Amino acid sequence: MICAPRGFCAGVVRAIDAVEKALALYGPPVYVRHEIVHNKYVVESLRRKGAVFVDELDEIPPTSAPVIFSAHGVPKAVPEDAGRRNFFAIDATCPLVTKVHREAEVHFRRGRHVVLVGHAGHPEVVGTMGQLPEGAISLVETVADVAAFTAPDDGGLAYVTQTTLSVDDTREIVETLKARFPAIVGPHKEDICYATTNRQEAVKRVAPQVDAMIVVGSPNSSNSQRLREVAERAGCPAARLVLRADDIDWSIFGNIRRLGLTAGASAPEVLVEEIIDAFAERYAVSVETVSTADESVFFPLPRELRGEAAE
């Protein structure tokens, strides 16, 4: 049973297209700070075309080549550093992550301390926390963190969330925040993105009906890890995160009759097809698609790569 929606979201498509368009317009190298999206197959494919991935800008020599920021967003210090070095910087941050950045800034300007619900160390969380001065934003990862959190004495409180969290976990954390701090201000529209929500809903539908679930995605992909957790909680006996067909542990999946299959928002469909083919070599396979939502979201390329601006 294949989940729909699955795989690439609009923000991932935009980020990958940005690197490919920059390569087409300017030729290699195109520098990319951090993995453009969290998928090794995608990153290696772009590397073969001439993308050069770096962890920090100080790894980039003086250059007129494009320098692209990943879909996860970056702290404000990064574009400032790029400006000082006269880099041709292109920001491929997902617009839904940018929305969270803007919310945090608005709350800060209105005198509120910001609570960020997210996972420590994730690039998106690092980027969001880096929008505000040190001490202006506090990270909570769990209900226990909320219980231990001490709000500053002055001003109000507001919260924002990472876009790729578990919908159910986040709801519990936010409810705990509201119970402790009834006046806390939240986003007008929740921060968890449409793609994360839709993919989790599809998994919830399929997971109780199958013997095992494969989530196609990289271990460092937050939304892919959440899909695996959602499948387990929804009653799937065995849920595994698999990068591609070569990584399938047939001792786990060898005796199943019904398999669920989905893909994280940064995993290309070719890897889903590869896994279906691997099962088809071993079993008589019939494919059923379970769809819970239609997606038609599209984000235009960064301005520097559009039409006349890119000429």
Shape: flat
Protein structure class: alpha/beta
Task: Name the strands of the widest sheet in spatial order.
Answer: 3-2-4-5
The separation of the N and C termini measures 46 Å
- The CATH architecture assignment of the largest domain turns out to be 3-Layer(aba) Sandwich
What count of structural domains? 3
Strand content: 15-25%
CATH superfamily of the largest domain: 4-hydroxy-3-methylbut-2-enyl diphosphate reductase, catalytic domain
What does this structure look like?
Pfam families: LYTB (PF02401). Its cofactor is [4Fe-4S] cluster. This is 4-hydroxy-3-methylbut-2-enyl diphosphate reductase. It is an enzyme of class 1 (oxidoreductase). (2E)-4-hydroxy-3-methylbut-2-enyl diphosphate binds at residues 38, 72, 122, 163, 221-223, 266. The chain has 311 residues and is of the alpha/beta class. The chain folds into three domains: 10-94, Rossmann fold, CATH 3.40.50.11270; 96-180, Cobalt-precorrin-4 Transmethylase, domain 1 (3-Layer(aba) Sandwich); 194-291, Cobalt-precorrin-4 Transmethylase, domain 1 (3-Layer(aba) Sandwich), CATH 3.40.1010.20. 38% of the residues lie in helices and 16% in strands. It has eleven helices and twelve strands. It has helices at 10-26, 40-49, 77-84, 95-109, 123-129, 143-148, 167-180, 194-206, 222-233, 250-253, 269-280; strands spanning 2-4, 30-33, 51-54, 66-69, 88-91, 113-117, 137-140, 157-161, 212-216, 239-242, 259-263, 289-291. The strands form four sheets. Strands 3-2-4-5 form a four-stranded parallel beta sheet, sandwiched between helices. Strands 7-6-8 form a three-stranded parallel beta sheet, with helices on both faces. It has a three-stranded parallel beta sheet with strand order 10-9-11. Helix 8 runs parallel beside helix 9 (222-233). The longest helix has 17 residues, at 10-26. It starts with a strand and ends in a 20-residue tail after the last strand.
